[in-house]
Amino acid sequence: MAQCYHDIYGADIVGIFLYGSYARGDYDNQSDIDIAAIVKGSRLDLQNKLKAVWDISADIGLENDVVVSPTVIPYDEFEEYKEKLPYYRNIAREGMQIG
Predict the structure, then answer these.
(1) Which range of residues forms the domain containing residue 44?
(2) Are 18 and 49 in contact (CB under 8 A)?
């Protein structure tokens, strides 16, 4: 998945993080794999490219019988809200950088 993000967002990527139950190590067979890329750029531009990431994550999920849940977050937004919003705070605190 990290390579997929790099292929689509290139040098604008600040970091790619695994978070949630897989990062904490408390996942089970019903857990999805949560991945967030922090990327420089506007939310609209980043979201427009996200469909390509979703397509690849769906293929990976089908091949491995797991749900992969990728997302992209604008870097400026993440920096502003990583201590204010629980979702961003979880990524900042428990996320494992994978790319």
Answers:
(1) 2-97
(2) no
